[in-house]
From TrEMBL:
It comes from Lupinus luteus (European yellow lupine). InterPro entries: DNA/RNA_pol_sf (IPR043502), RVT_2 (IPR013103). This is Reverse transcriptase Ty1/copia-type domain-containing protein. It comes from the Eukaryota. CDD domains: RNase_HI_RT_Ty1. Residues 1-106 form the Reverse transcriptase Ty1/copia-type domain.
């Protein structure tokens, strides 16, 4: 802080200095590890010299691995992936030699808490889910499937385990995939785009009739935040379900007056001009990837559109 950095209000491990794209310096801190980035190499070098004057530090060079995440610079940008971690997970659960599939969740799957088939090892099931959830940090295309099977950790059955195994089979076939953060060729340009998509199904869970909320934030056409989860309340209509999804996204109508005040945050932001809400046509709605199982062609198209690519 003595060097003029400001702590990020939402990510307390991120510190920022400067305003203009050419002078801005961003530090990501985890315990005693630092990630440093800037629009100019000289800013990074100056910061390193200031820190080395005060502390004993090791310069590990350009970022390639951090907290299980791998980074590779290409001529198109930087690919963030977890190939090593995903490979280790597949080996751990003896899925390295499995047959691959093109999608993580089968269309028409009907999982529920009341499935009558045989129970499976609860501890193993939870370990598999936990491993998949960490892979989701660089694989938003897994978010819906992993969120779906996570609902049954209390009493998993064979049908639930089969769905988990399918996600592993999909992961095996897409080991080299990750998020591509494209290079900004216009170095003197301050313009950046932050776009959010949100949607929800209606009563998608047949057990408790709760809906699934989904949101995705794209910064310069690359995903930086996403979520697929069940809503905490039962929506009484598709209108209400989608309204709740939008409010959770932090972007009325007579039908919506009964919805709690906390869901009207979005209206306030729109009135202040901080958020612009636009209708999204079905063919451009990235939300489909996070709210329901899709056939292969549609799934692969949306996967590409959210910036998940094969980097191998």
């Amino acid at each position: 802080m003595q060097l003029g950095f400001t702590k990020c209000t939402t990510e307390h491990g991120v510190y920022v200095k400067g305003n203009h794209i050419a002078e801005i310096l961003i530090i990501c801190l985890y315990v005693d590890d630092l990630l440093i980035t800037s629009g100019e190499l000289k800013n990074i070098q100056a910061f390193k010299e200031e820190m080395q004057a005060e502390f004993e530090m090791s310069d590990l060079g350009e970022l390639s691995y951090f907290l299980g995440m791998e980074f590779r610079r290409t001529n198109r940008g930087i690919l963030m992936h977890q190939t090593k971690y995903a490979t280790d997970v597949l080996k751990r659960f003896q899925m390295m030699n499995c047959n691959t599939v093109a999608t993580p969740i089968e269309v028409g799957i009907g999982l529920s808490q009341g499935d009558a088939d045989c129970a499976v090892d609860k501890t193993l099931y939870r370990e598999m889910i936990g491993s998949l959830r960490y892979v989701c940090n660089s694989r938003p295309d897994l978010a819906y499937g992993v969120g779906l099977v996570s609902r049954y950790m209390e009493s998993p059955k064979q049908s639930h385990m089969s769905a988990v195994n399918r996600i592993f089979r999909y992961l095996k076939g897409t080991l080299g995939y990750g998020i591509m953060y494209p290079a900004n060729r216009n170095r003197g340009c301050n313009e950046s785009s932050l776009i959010a998509f949100s949607d929800a199904d209606w009563c998608g869970d047949k057990t408790d009739r709760k809906s699934t909320t989904w949101y995705l934030f794209l910064f310069n056409n690359a995903p930086i935040s996403w979520c697929s989860k069940k809503q905490d309340v039962v929506a009484l209509s598709t209108c209400e379900s989608e309204y709740i999804a939008a409010s959770l996204n932090p972007v009325a109508h007579g039908r919506s007056k009964h919805i709690e005040t906390r869901f009207h945050y979005i209206r306030e932001q729109v009135s202040k001009g901080k958020v612009k809400v636009e209708h999204c046509k079905s063919e451009n709605q990235l939300a489909d990837l996070f709210t329901k199982p899709l056939k292969r062609d549609r799934f692969e198209k949306l996967r590409h559109n959210i910036g998940v690519e094969n980097g191998s």
